[in-house]
Amino acid sequence: MIAAATLSLSQFRDRTGGASDKDMAEVEEFEMFVRNYQNMVFSVSARIVGNTADAEDISQEVFIRAYDRFKELRNSTTVGGWLKTVATNLSINHLNRYRARWKFFSEQTAPVEIAIEPDQENDRAAALELAIQKLPDAHRVPLVLFHFQQMTYEEIAAKLQISLSKVKSDIHRGRETLKRLVTK
Question: Closest by alpha carbon to 58, among 40, 75, 35, 36?
């Protein structure tokens, strides 16, 4: 799913220009690690940020951080959770840089009208994913954190630095918009 994440890491060499067999084995092991987890990391990021280009950039950043800690992560039983947490945090940090933009949309009272492409109307899961991606950030982020990351309302409020009532309101509005979009 992430084209850039599947690039070969074999071009990483030590300063003398050559790589030892041990280094090459580690690079190959990391490439397999990336292949195993890239879809999960990308999905987490894409659902939160709502666009694939930003999600790809965030996914790459997650795997750069994983590469720096690969010796610790390679035998960890909680590596999936660690990757999910890093992807979530980086995605939220990305959105926080643009908080003024998504705060504006969350304060609008008119419902958002989003058309679903006709070729995907039969595929409910694809329609849902498309609808989630097109939600305004202020509705999509809390909704994704609640339903896909299993965070509580309180955790979401703390992470996004917004009030508990705003979290509940945004999740409710997001659900209502999704219901209208998916049941059309």
Answer: 40
